[in-house]
From TrEMBL, chain A:
GO terms for molecular function: flavin adenine dinucleotide binding; glutathione-disulfide reductase (NADPH) activity; thioredoxin-disulfide reductase (NADPH) activity. GO terms for cellular component: cytosol; mitochondrion. Binds 1 FAD per subunit. The active site is at H474. Coiled coil: none annotated. This is thioredoxin-disulfide reductase (NADPH). NCBIfam families: TGR. Pfam families: Pyr_redox_2, Pyr_redox_dim. NAD(+) binds at G202, A203, S204, Y205, V206, A207, L208, E209, G294.
Automatic annotation (TrEMBL), chain B:
GO terms for biological process: cell differentiation; cell redox homeostasis; spermatogenesis. Its cofactor is FAD. It is found in: Cytoplasm; Microsome; Nucleus. InterPro entries: FAD/NAD-bd_sf, FAD/NAD-binding_dom, FAD/NAD-linked_Rdtase_dimer_sf, Glutaredoxin, GSHR/TRXR-like, Pyr_nucl-diS_OxRdtase_dimer, Pyr_OxRdtase_I_AS, Thioredoxin-like_sf. This is Thioredoxin reductase 3. Residues 94-142 form the Glutaredoxin domain. Residues 526-637 form the Pyridine nucleotide-disulphide oxidoreductase dimerisation domain.
Amino acid sequence: MAAMAVALRGLGGRFRWRTQAVAGGVRGAARGAAAAQLGRKVAVVDYVEPSPQGTRWGLGGTCVNVGCIPKKLMHQAALLGGLIQDAPHYGWEVAQPVPHDWRKMAEAVQNHVKSLNWGHRVQLQDRKVKYFNIKASFVDEHTVCGVAKGGKEILLSADHIIIATGGRPRYPTHIEGALEYGITSDDIFWLKESPGKTLVVGASYVALECAGFLTGIGLDTTVMIRSIPLRGFDQQMSSMVIEHMASHGTQFLRGCAPSRVRRLPDGHLQVTWEDCTTGKEDTGTFDTVLWAIGRVPDTRSLNLEKAGVDTSPDTQKILVDSREGTSVPHIYAIGDVVEGRPELTPTAIMAGRLLVQRLFGGSSDLMDYDNVPTTVFTPLEYGCVGLSEEEAVARHGQEHVEVYHAHYKPLEFTVAGRDASQCYVKMVCLREPPQLVLGLHFLGPNAGEVTQGFALGIKCGASYAQVMRTVGIHPTCSEEVVKLRISKRSGLDPTVTGC
Amino acid sequence: MSLCPGWAGPLTVEKPRPNPITAAWPRPRPHGDPTPPEDLSAAVWSLVPALYAPCASRGWCCSGWPRLETPECLSTRPLLGPFLAGRAVGHGGVKELFSSLGVECNVLELDQVDDGAKVQEVLSEITNQKTVPNVFVNKVHVGGCDQTFQAYQSGLLQKLLQEDSAYDYDLIIVGGGSGGLSCAKEAAILGKKVMVLDFVVPSPQGTSWGLGGTCVNVGCIPKKLMHQAALLGQALCDSRKFGWEYNQQVKHNWETMTKAIQNHISSLNWGYRLSLREKAVAYVNSYGEFVEHHKIKATNKKGQETYYTAAQFVIATGERPRYLGIQGDKEYCITSDDLFSLPYCPGKTLVVGASYVALECAGFLAGFGLDVTVMVRSILLRGFDQEMAEKVGSYMEQHGVKFLRKFIPVMIQQLEKGSPGKLKVLAKSTEGTETIEGVYNTVLLAIGRDSCTRKMGLEKIGVKINEKSGKIPVNDVEQTSVPYVYAVGDVSEGKPELTPVAIQSGKLLARRLFGASLEKCDYINVPTTVFTPLEYGCCGLAEEKAIEVYKKENLEIYHTLFWPLEWTVAGRENNTCYAKIICNKLDHDRVIGFHILGPNAGEVTQGFAAAMKCGLTKQLLDDTIGIHPTCGEVFTTLEITKSSGLDITQKGC
């Protein structure tokens, strides 16, 4: 998908715009809309290159089409499966087991996504943002060119160009059959038929989330992880996420790397992998192989060199300064396509909005990329904001960090007889009073909802004492955060008992 | 090293509290660093428990500390009363002084025990006194020979001796609910001798329960579990849209649910008893009634009476549901005291009242598919933001709960006995003469709660209560009109009636009484959540209250409707969930009111409450990145002000 918001400049060329925007996706749309509101002439250029499996989608970018939205909805489907199992404990007479129909779910999810695509188009129209569904690339530093469906060439020139083309899933390059038989997160949400027995390769949050909901809707799911899960996240929390998934039916092949994928005569996929420590080879048969080994920025087809926009030689991501400016003064980049930014939808949206306000609204507010909260929607959700324990220790030293933690049991789990071994919360603080909160990590139901407010607290410079002075809301899971009393250093049992 | 920073040299004890030794010691903290300072010998630490809690049966609890062994020479000594460490050659008449006061003195002759030298070293470290005899009375270090006689002459010694012998307990807590138990446990952790008196007077319908108070037995816990059961009913409907396939009509079985919930509650009751035992808090299942100063009568189920005395008291007796005072109400109606353990499905139910209890109960009953009517005298959720309250009500109405506004019951008649039976309710309009009649299986009264303060002899010791409400007025340290009597929880006047508030204030009270803490309970910006079918979470001021306090022109209110992602595919209604914040324009747009109506409102609200404690402003909300896709993120993108009058309905995404 390529999306560029272009605020077009004066006369000349085929199309002329006062302000020019080049971008697509949520961020592009947001930026475009915001710029348009500020009285500028804005165009959004968006084009989705079909995935190797041929999947394509509409306006809105990764989040809406092949990311957050369908992911959370399928996660919800899986959670509902869990609730169906809880229901008899609460008096609902449901005969178990209840089967799940992929087609029905996928259709419902896809219909919702399509309605969002439509909504985005209407929104752009309402705000008088010109939308071009063309694949554009730079001609020079003020002009982009694209070819419309009829073969007609369109030239757009603008004063300001914003690149927000995002990223696409990475395919392994040296694995036989990977591209041919494997799918990615670009495809999974658009499958018409159930993926069946699935091998998910990768340890990113995308990998774990997909494996989580596939298991949750009753599919035989295996995750193959070469090294560590959820790199960059707190490692204690990550291992608990894995532990929870493993105890709820997801199979894990740790320390393994796939070497080839072949289609068997019966249509199944035979995957061969190597155990990285022993070097031993093993094989397994699956219906679907899902690659979730990372994403690559969508910059190659943009002809960035014609405009003179610099990218990182390692990642191909665009290099920007704190104002999101690239090496070319009037060209900007935001979202996942930018080097060193958190790859999150709300981050991209806010960066886009602030950028446009700086460009046209007389604002000088910069985007603050610190303390960005996020949530991994694995079966047991993991919400976090601020520093991981490792990072806090690395920055401040073990002696200066105090970690408060608790194992708790959500009230709803008790009657349902659910295992709460991995329901856990920890707060990483500076040890010196007033014990500034550096990070919060929450593993449990509704982690996203719990984390959001505390992210604000951390933004306000909350201290441990302030959080402890907050009265809890009873009975919730989030009250466990304001009841954290046991420090890791004390070595005391952090299990919460009673209310 | 000076062990006792505030304490050096001869003792001139002005008051018995704060105890100079205990106050000066690094105090055991449940969440603190448990390692003793390194330069203290293990021997010192081994003595601490012996000196702090001279009686083994008092159950010194050094939670968080290593349990070290007391030197053998001390471990078996009954250390009640004066304790004197000296040498056999003589004690300068101190021993005789105690004898003349009629008190037996525990004497440890340091030159006659094996580890005497070590003990003396320890004592001198603790007391900063190198000489013997070294005298302690009731855990207070008096000093050497001269100081003891000085104390005798000033009367202090007698007072100290009396302190100890006068009362059975340091603290008696009346009421074993959230507030009482948290106070008891904390006081015990601080080394005090504590008793909890808890007795549940059966409801008019005969319902009774175990230790833990309202929240655990007939409040938050069973309420939230039944709410969850109702949410599961909704989830079952949603699940078909998400691809789960079953065709049968799913029925709800009240007995199965109630049994499961009651089992959970029993385990909690048991857990509370266990934790009191572990902390050596005496628990007596008796009704407490003051008979004279510092003295309380405890009457058990069999009518046996026992008397206990204590230096201080905490009243934490909470509240019980109010009855209407009309014909038939106590005979035939139930309250929230009865509902959660009702052995049969209540059937067609009339809920009388518009408190959060009323709406929550009506909500989950309707969620099970029961025919539910709520009879409301005036407004919904008094004290809460009325815009939100009306939205709560209208969501319930759209989901099958019937509302009868501006009516009050005047008579309840039994038509049929049974489980459930049939009741006829006669009600009259609050505005005219109109009367209506209805037949229900169950009538649940939820019109308010009354404090349990009138039958506990408070007048005998002079504790003032608000005659109208029955609540006990307290100052900012939870103290009543009688200095040694305190009140926490729902029974104290003007405080939010919430479990976490009671827990917090009970715990902080114990720390102030027996620890070195001065921290008061902060009742500002207490968050709460109403677990109606659509949950309502709030923190800070209601819009009406904010306008009253700050004037409308000084406020900016941001609001929006939102559609939770999970509701879209489930086909649930758009433009129903609602978020609102109230900002004070005169103070950097500080957020003074936070309101959310939507799923998981409690989980969402908690963190924002913490942020409000830290001075949350609109700017900070705008600067914070949302977590996508959640409901909570809606607060990071609030743009429309109420004063603008702009449309807040969502069209599509």
